[in-house]
Amino acid sequence: MSMRAGPLARICIVGGGTAGWIAAALIAHHYPQIAVELVESDDIGTIGVGESTIPPFLQLLARLGVSESDFIRDCQASYKLGIEFRDWQRPGTAYFHPFGDLGTPDTTDFYQLWLRARAEGLDLPLQDFAPANVMAQAGRFTLPFAARQTPVGTAAYALHVDAKRVAAFLRRYAEARGVVRTEGLVDDVAVDPGGFVQAIRLRTGEQITADLFLDCTGFRALLAGKALGGGYRDWSHWLLCDRAVAVQTANAGPPPPFTLAQAQPAGWRWRIPLQHRTGNGHVFSSAHMSDDEATALLLAQVEGEPVTAPVTVPFRTGVREAPWQGNVVAIGLAQGFIEPLESTAIHLVYRAVDYLFRFLPARDCAAELAGEFNRRMIADYEEIRDFVVLHYCLTERRDTPFWTACATMELPDSLARRIALFRVNGTVPDGTDELFRAVSWQAVISGMGVTPRGWHPAMDRAAAPTLAPDLTRAAATLARFVDTLPTHARFIADHVRAPAP
């Protein structure tokens, strides 16, 4: 009988932070029969470059049975209805990537209807019909699921969170369910001739064995990269930014219910408002701007007084060739990284654990299961890569070398095909289990000023004489309803106000 026969009994998570503790919490909740040990060191800080999530994050909380309101209070979170992109098409322009749907619930493809209405004289931008955008621009908020039968019922939302508080919250959750935390630095990794990790040795001399290891050691990738020598697909020729400088500031006013992503001469800056502070950052290309220039530019634009010193983080965009090798599964930054433009980092952690559960192995860690996990995980990274590159490649800017390079780069074939198809009549191909639905592609492409040559022929059945007036009235109805909602700040104060820090 194989030495590795039988079901998983022990999992060791190497590294904490958001990735490690999400994995620990989910395993402890779903597989209480598996012993879980998490090894991390207080000497190693967490990166936490992004503090913004997307709607599937709320599914994670629900899956854990966590009270969303309690989580928001504990993590000093605020609500997020989408992302506002300023100056991306060209300086002075802005568009919004909303969460949720466009139009009303009974509209099968609102974007196509909007294209047809424009030919009949409609002069309203697409985002006037996105409930999340109209709420965001008015600084107002309500829970869409609690207003399902209203004009904002098709909106969705996510959260702005304090990443360190998220990790602490999930640590408490996991430890209450039996996860054992061990303080220590990894000094060595013992690998057998078959490519399986036998044990990790800590600087204290302690050895820790397990059937399966999760590498959550960030960009260092101590197991998947350093010990196993796994390869890495570098996508820096498509995504030119390779550094980020981050600083926290005091809130300069009520937190708006959206993330700001504002284009800069060699990248872009983020603004993520929490209840008690604001996260700010500048993602940039070191080939086009120095650290000092990037930091000075960020500090000149932040709206509140800095409460932390600026921290610069280098990164390499891409994904590991085999996120799962032998009995090691890389998760989080050890697995790959797409710059935080669309707030996908935490989602990719959740996704990796979800795939691990789908293909959960026995102690032998069958190569067939690892292969399917890798195929699905890499496909997710490629989808997100293409969607993020989309924001850059459609720019009309030629005012700096960085933006000229973005506008003239050779695109991934998969993205080039999507854009070409869209330019015909607005068609967005359906993928398998994709994160970004047609509404997201439509929002970004139309926001960047691209209009298809035509529309789908099915729209020719629309009642042309009344189409534009009907949509104009629908937009007005939506705007009037939003004006009746509480402000974002009032909604937080009434329902989820966090204790003073």
Automatic annotation (TrEMBL):
Record bears the keyword NAD: no
Stretches that traverse the bilayer: 12-31
UniProtKB keywords: Membrane, Transmembrane, Transmembrane helix
Protein name as it appears in the record: Tryptophan 7-halogenase
Keyword Transmembrane helix (UniProt): yes
InterPro entries associated with the record: FAD/NAD-bd_sf (IPR036188), Flavin-dep_Halogenase_NPB (IPR050816), Flavin_halogenase (IPR006905), Trp_halogen (IPR033856)
